[in-house]
Amino acid sequence: MQIITGSTGDGTGASIMNNSLNITPEAVIFAVLTLVLGYIIAKIIVRWTKRVLRRQGHMTEVAAGLLGRIISILLYIIVILIAVSFLGVDVNGIVLGLSAIVGLVVAFGMKDTVNNFAAGIWIASMNLFDKGEEVTIAGHWGFVQEIGIMATQITAAGSNIITIPNGQVWNDSIINYTRNPERRIDQSFGVSYESDMTEVVHITLSIAREHPKVLDTPEPAVIFSEMGDSSVNFTLRCWTKTPDYYGTRADILRSLHAELTAAGIEIPYPHVDVAFRNAIPEKTENKFEV
């Protein structure tokens, strides 16, 4: 069976286009066999590829699965194009159209890739942070684990690894806590309203000045922060070497609790005091006559 479609012009000799589809029983059989065999072969190739990638350890299971799906889609497209070519369809136009679509998709996808790559170069050239430094990047706190070409990884509390695209790193704020050799400790605490505030300041300054890792310059200071709902709040500010920050801060916190408690100064905590301002009247007997 041969299907012929054509268009003729007028008698002035306009061009004639004849397009034919050779839909013969043999062509249909070859097309169906191509689809079936191609599908089976594509499945075998994808399964083998995923198994090799996981066995070699080059990719995680998720990455191998994603790559397998991409390969399978490409193979299915090739099989379909081969099958329809047996029916006499010119696949050159289809290939060109698919190439244009794929190129457009890749161009949009590569926009973020190029942005992340360029941002990675700027981050590395400006030396904004280094591996092991404590930072806050785009609102995420942690220690720098790796500075990659496309993304930066930081390790947060609980050993959670946070991956941030370099484009987001470059376009957001970066706080580096460990770049300077010295770091300030801001330790807030509260005491009850009945406490002797002068004694509180004296005890707090003594704790800071007597600690061996607290620097003399800048001099420690106690700042009156605010009068809260149930406490008078202070902030102790002192400086120490950056590697000694967390240990010194923990020592100061323990000393504040121990020495303020020993001096009889109450460190309030959330609780509720109920006061009865009016005495409860005595019960009186009421007599009712029926």
From TrEMBL:
The record's listing under Gene3D superfamilies reads: 1.10.287.1260, 2.30.30.60, 3.30.70.100
InterPro entries, A to Z: LSM_dom_sf, MS_channel_C, MscS_archaea/bacteria_type, MscS_beta-dom_sf, MscS_channel_2nd, MscS_channel_C_sf, MscS_channel_TM-2
GO molecular function terms noted in the UniProt entry: mechanosensitive monoatomic ion channel activity
Q: Which GO terms describe its cellular component?
A: plasma membrane
- How is it placed in the membrane, per its record? Multi-pass membrane protein
SUPFAM superfamilies linked to this entry: Mechanosensitive channel protein MscS (YggB), C-terminal domain (SSF82689), Mechanosensitive channel protein MscS (YggB), transmembrane region (SSF82861), Sm-like ribonucleoproteins (SSF50182)
**Mechanosensitive ion channel MscS domain span:** 112-179
Q: What protein does this entry describe?
A: Mechanosensitive ion channel
Protein family membership: Belongs to the MscS (TC 1.A.23) family.
- Pfam families per record: MS_channel_2nd, MS_channel_3rd
Q: Which organism is it from?
A: Methanogenium marinum
Compartments in which it is found? Cell membrane
The answer to whether the entry has keyword Ubl conjugation is no
**Keywords for the protein's UniProt record, in alphabetical order:** Cell membrane, Membrane, Transmembrane, Transmembrane helix
